[in-house]
Amino acid sequence: MKYLVVLCDGMADTPVDVLGGKTPMQVAIKPNMDKLASAAQVGICRTVAKGLKPGSDVANLSVMGYDPKVCYTGRSPLEAASIGIELKDSDVTLRCNLVTLSDDEPFEKKKMLDYCAGDISTDEAREIIKTVDEKLGEAPYKFYSGVSYRHCLVVDGGTTDLGEMTPPHDISGKEIGEYLSKSENAAPLISLMKKSNGFLKDHPVNIERVKRGLRPANSIWLWGEGTKPAVENFKEKFGIKAAVVSAVDLLKGIGKCAGMAVPMVEGATGYIDTNFEGKTSAGIKAFEDGCDLVYMHFEAPDECGHRGEAENKVKAIEYIDARVIKPMLDYLNSCGEDYRILIMPDHPTPIATKTHSAEPVPFMIYDSSIEQNGVECFTEQAALGTGIFVEHGPDIMKMLLNK
Question: What is the pTM of this model?
Fold first, then answer.
């Protein structure tokens, strides 16, 4: 038996005016998802337990079968694991975004113009983080470059008692002052952010980006604090070998911490321009290399939600359907053995709010060996209408594996 998970990050939504009062899942032309859903178990699942924040870290851990209330120690340590940082028990890590803040105003009065600095390239970002570390990376601070706008700060002997370190994608277009932590422990970190804004606007990479009409990465933004992760080995937990295919350090970090295979995919960006075909090939190769389960994660719907790009979110869903699910189905059908497929988002990222929400999400589990009566079209409304509700998110993996 082979098991495939297609995790469409942030795919679930609420009705969108520019889409005629429909959700992107309702509008998207996705014949492969819909055909599977017509013969699958379909319902909704609470991936974010009550009391937890609706981050991709918490939600994906749940879908993978881990209880975040037991194993979650913060977002950035998982990303640090992907980057290859060896953490000490005394280390505290933070996500270090490269962002675009408005000009001229005092720091607290600036607005968050872009949480990802215009989708800055990894090569450009590496040069900027190098400069940040040269200027700000004195003990106890050390900066590490990641992918695109996503990077990491490690604080030797730091604390996670920092008050509210707000994710930048939660405050797009808003004045940042009221979202800066007021905790005394956070003051040195806020100071790092202010200092970075003072010198990054004149960084050669940013000068060139502005010349090309692109947004500059004129500040770092620190958030997502945590300590060394404690994620159980996936094979020991479930008895099967697994792989994670993703563009983002968060998912790759979870995979590495869980002892999964984590293939690198050239051109995987985490946005709608990602290398869908390359990720599909990596998924197939993981099966061929002996993996029983392949967890394929696609960030594009989430990024489009954060940016308020309704049409692109529809397009992202259609790309996943045509360029991933179709060829993966062709491969699985050619293998001559039964398989199961789980397709779902990790959390909603509504166009209306441009940030994550904690509402339960639609899921489908298709089993090639069982005839089931599903739904005509895989949407939020159809999933809700089945009456099937998985209250405890980590149970979804047990359902897929029939444990």
Answer: 0.85
